[in-house]
Amino acid sequence: MELSGRKLSLAALYSGLVALCLAILPETSGPIWLAVLFLILALPSGMFTLYLATLRRTHWLSMWEPDSFAVRWLSGPWLRLIFGILVAFMSAFLLSLRLSVAGWIDLTLLVISGVAFGLALIVFGKWLRSQYQPLYRQGRPLFWTAVIAAGLMCLLDPALRFLIGGYATYETLPEAIYAAQEQASWLGGSAVASLLAGLASIWVGFDAYVFGRLVEDPGFGAWFGLLMSGLFRFPLYFVAGLTICAFVLPSSEYQRIVLPVHPDEEIQPVSPERIAWASASTTIVIFFIYFPLVAVLETTVEQRPSMQAPEEAVVQAVELISGQYYEVGTVEEINHLAISMIDESAEELALLDFTLENGFSMMRDNIDNYLDWYYSLPGEWARVANLLRGNAEEYLVQRLSEELLAGDPFAVFEKALEVAIPVETQRQEEFEELALALLDSRRVEIAHEEEVEVVARADQEALISLSAHSEFSTLESRLGVTIATSGISGILAAVATRQILSRIAARGTIRAAAAALARLATIRAGAGGGGAAAGAAVGGTIGSVFPGVGTAIGAAIGGVVGGVSAGVGAEYLIIKLEELVSRENHHNELLAAIDEAEFEVRQYFTRTSQP
Questions:
Q1: What proportions of the chain, in percent to the nearest 5, are helix, strand and coil?
Q2: For 119-159, how does the pLDDT look when each residue is reduced to its tens digit (9 = 90+)?
Q3: pTM of the full predicted structure?
């Protein structure tokens, strides 16, 4: 069982990929690179575990007759595949958990664990191989070598930390956990990375606290805590050992994974159909199940209350108007005063009301265009891609805004408003006098060191102007709409869209849309099996009918192509099922938001009485 140059090259390439992900991740926000790191960490241990599961099933089925129920139903690949996937991602979870807050000592010890594995293989490998029959002589000794190396590292870890002084003492466990949280996270700024860093801080903090207590007061409690810490540490080094096993195991042994379970020592040739089945299954699992589920997990974790930032200390709330502090509600009251003094003619008001109604009607008509895009393959793929980048909600908000404003629904209204603007100038002087008096009565004096929270900002000159343009400026202060200085074009579209999006956000429509694929994750997984079978059929055909391509290579490529094609077909059916179930409700929620926004906006542009 010697390491060839090809295996060493693969191991070096694997280490480089892990290092590259760890270098990129701190600068990222979405979970896409974290998902890639998970996949890289999971593949070696998953492949080796899948191989061990194949040997185990060979042993179990050796006691049954070839035509028995057990052989017919338990010799298939799915149980082995499920077991391998579970162990693979448990391994990736443990490694990424420790890496999320790893210091240089932790990284050094992981490297030393590889040396410990090599020493254990040299010392015990030959003896272990002699204990097994030929069929099990390659994989099982490696498994026990990983166990021995992990046990050795459980002893070496605390010893090496003590020798190099890599420990600290803490009075309490929470203090140790808090110190661990201060370490920089290697896994980026996504919600999943934050969750991993929080869990890892508890693990690392517990280790640090126990070791510090052992150094200061080596009593029974400290030794018992060290034993418990070792039990937590063993799986980490065992998983590292399984990863190394994947590169030490002879490459030919992996063929057993895709072959039928058989007790023969000699490895049978792998048919093109089985190569195609393996490549199609892998394509389906990774691209149509794994990455969408990572996106769902990111959204789910992000919504947890514990992920929200803690509330700040209570401070005095104020409004800031041209550098001066005023009581909360001052801007609101001046806005109402301005609205109450608008006295346009009935004809002008009727025209504004009519054009305003037409604008919102155009927005309602645009809903179907948005939903047609949403319930389509390009829409689904764009949604998943932006989930993985961590900006799905922003993307859907932008897309919805563009669709609602298609055709410039408020262009006619804004032209009518330009005609009505001169009416405001007649009341400007009276309104300015009242507004300045109100500002004088609401001013707030703030002590030098007193903390304040500014809940609204406004410019005094704009605030006390009563022209129609300035009326929009006061609306800007109320709703946060940015108004172009060159005119009023697009202002109402911005106001209306802001009102609609705020109501959609309150209903959770955008957030639910960003995570809608979670409701169909089970269907995706079920469809993945059929997609893998169809992909395998295509790959097998290419591998056997067109030998010039190369049976194995042609089968693998055909499996990927077939897997993608079958996956896309399954994805299309899933989207149409989702559309059948939820489109009407989705449409009604958007329509209700537009209705409410129209009611709110209409109050600012059409009434003449006191609010």
A1: 75, 5, 20
A2: 999 999 899 989 988 888 888 899 999 999 999 988 888 77
A3: 0.61
